[in-house]
Amino acid sequence: MSIISIYVGNLPYTTRAEDLKEIFSRYGQVSRATVIMDRETNRPRGFAFIEMTNQAEAEAAVAALAGYDFQGRPLTVNCARNNVVRGAGNTSQAAMRPGVTGAGAATPPEPATDAPVRKEITPPASRGYHNRLSGQ
Fold first, then answer.
1. Contact 136, 127 (CB under 8 A)
2. CA 124, CA 69: separation in Å to the nearest integer?
3. What is the CATH code for 4-79?
4. CB neighbours of 40 closer than 8 A, spacing ≥ 6?
5. With left for phi above 0 and alpha for psi between -120 and 50, is residue 102 left, alpha or beta?
6. What is the pLDDT of residues 42-55, one digit of tens each?
7. Could you tell me which residue, 49 or 2, shows the higher pLDDT?
8. With b meaning 16 or more CB within 10 Å and e meaning fewer, what string describes 90-109?
9. 76 falls in which pLDDT band (50, 70, 90)?
10. What residue segments make up the domains of the chain, in order of their start?
11. Torsion of CA 53, 57, 63, 69, to 10 degrees
12. Which residues pair with 33 in a beta bridge?
């Protein structure tokens, strides 16, 4: 049995998990309702996740409650996406690691060769000051 996670957004800040559980239970069994809280202020952030065990019931709830007027606000309801890679535009270090899948994931690294690669190190251009370390 798999758990289907549903994202619920545009919530009033007074929303409680029990309120959401009551609304979504009209369409099937709700295993958990979690209102996301801000770490610093400990106030709701305006969105939540609902977990349901039946795929058909979850899809019915998403279809019926998208745009539903809840305490004067139209709800944004859709199936939650799996967060494989997080970051700004998938350019974070996690997206660049080999073996990470998802949009924007880096290509596998080139195989290593036996010969070490030598890079020429050029000193920075003189800026008109005395460099104690190089003796100039």
1. no
2. 64
3. 3.30.70.330
4. none
5. left
6. 999 999 999 999 99
7. 49
8. beeeebbeeebeeeebeeee
9. very high
10. 4-79
11. -80
12. 50
